Task: structure prediction
Amino acid sequence: MKARTLARWILGATVGSALCAGAFAAEIVVGQVAPHTGLEAKQGLGYAAGLRLAFDSINKQGGVNGNTFTLARLDDRNDPATTVEQTRKLVAEQRPVVLAGYFGSRNLAELLNSGLLERQRLALVGYRTTEIPPANPLLFSVRADVRDELVKLTGHLATVGITRLGLLHEAGADAVVAAADEAAGRAKASFVVRASYAENGRNTGALVSAFLKTPPQAIIMVANGATTAAFIERYRSEGGAAQLFAYSGADIEQLSQRLGEEQMKGVVISQVTPNPYKNTSRLTREFAEAAKAHKPDTPVSYVMMEGYIAGRVIIEAARRQGRAPTREGMVAALNAMSDYDLGGYAVGFKPGARAGSKYVELSIISSEGKIQQ
Result:
């Protein structure tokens, strides 16, 4: 073969290979419908920032099997009906392979009741609720569920001799109440007073009165950040002296922005991800490196760490499918993810159990308003 002919053949083969590879390469769209305005906006935006950190980091490395990731977002203003409406719009216009980072018990319930996930064969990876949702085969939580947090909180209280408890929860959260009673029973404790709030959680006066009338030694709050902050503010101002314990969805950063140091002092919050402010594991080091390299537009937070974990799980599920990830393939890959180690934080799923982690630790707010593990 002459030199010129050989050169043409090599060039043609190279171009052909590139075109073939390019034919498989695609942009994997991940969809999020969450509160980006309103009282819970900081959490929705923080979760989105965490997802983008994971995607930007892998895209910079060339993606997965030639595919890159992009996050498509729409605002639901924390309104359940809008969650469904905006998800329909996002699915129709952006064609996501998977959904991620949803918020709100009723928002998630409305989405499941709509049948949209089943019709579209779409998995939802990562969500925050103040209820324990049903074990739907298309739901994949990357965190411990509320049951695990209640066990940790009641167990801790029992070790220091606190057994007369109060429970603040969202109205209609029957599974949470049952889980709380079960956890308290195991710790040889009991709830002497309970109070529930409507979804907007604005009537904190009645809630505070219930706990002042029958004072418990400690109050466990399974409530969103806005409601928890409003409750603490009023409870402390009216002389409430019980120790206060919040579940992770209250968002420690949101509380610290609204409440003063005296109001926050001694508040304990269960956390379901490693501390994003400490480089104590491979996961936290990689998170810190990603935040430094890509400079998210919201401050580093626990909710951002959770979004980053969800993004990493989605990337791994896409990697396991090869060159052409699909919605059905995403569900299958997630279901087969039994023990994925992100570096000090393992995620795995099995039938009937959609909480992908058991990781729970407690944070306490010091007298200086700082987080202590």
